[in-house]
Amino acid sequence: CLATLIIMLVGDTYTLINYVSFINYLCYGVTIMGLIVLRWKKPKIFRPIKVNLLIPITYLAFWAFLLIFSLYSEPIVCGVGLIIILTGVPVFFLGVYWRNKPKCVNRLIESTTCWGQKLCFVVYPQCGSAEEE
């Protein structure tokens, strides 16, 4: 959110749309690749919807063309899009990967989550953490 606010203050809306569209296309392609990898490595797991592999492979072919063309035609926009995506890596390591956090960090994360929920009216905030229950 902070990166988006900075981009909106500094750049124009057209550039912001280009950043976000590149990020979306990149994420869609990685998701479809994950579908193919799971179909190959874990063919026996339950799937409520199963499609012919020709559909995601065809999608990936078009996706690769669009991504390569975007990288060739607007490398700076794509680079900034990748930097925006990579800003989530430290957040992942601090919030998800790091299991044995000190209690003060857990309290900070919990209070920030609760504050955000109240501010945005998205989820009714819980009293206390789930670990206490």
Automatic annotation (TrEMBL):
Transcription keyword on record: no
Q: List where this protein forms a coiled coil.
A: none
Q: Which residues cross the membrane?
A: 16-39, 51-73, 79-98
- Which BP terms in the Gene Ontology apply to this protein? D-alanine transmembrane transport; D-serine transmembrane transport
Question: Which keywords are on file for this protein?
Answer: Membrane, Transmembrane, Transmembrane helix
Q: Which Gene Ontology terms cover its molecular function?
A: L-amino acid transmembrane transporter activity; neutral L-amino acid transmembrane transporter activity
Keyword Transmembrane on this protein?
A: yes
PANTHER family in the cross-refs: AMINO ACID TRANSPORTER (PTHR11785), ASC-TYPE AMINO ACID TRANSPORTER 1 (PTHR11785:SF73)
| Protein name per the record | AAA1 protein
Organism, scientific name: Ptilonorhynchus violaceus (Satin bowerbird)
Task: Name the encoding gene, please.
Answer: Slc7a10
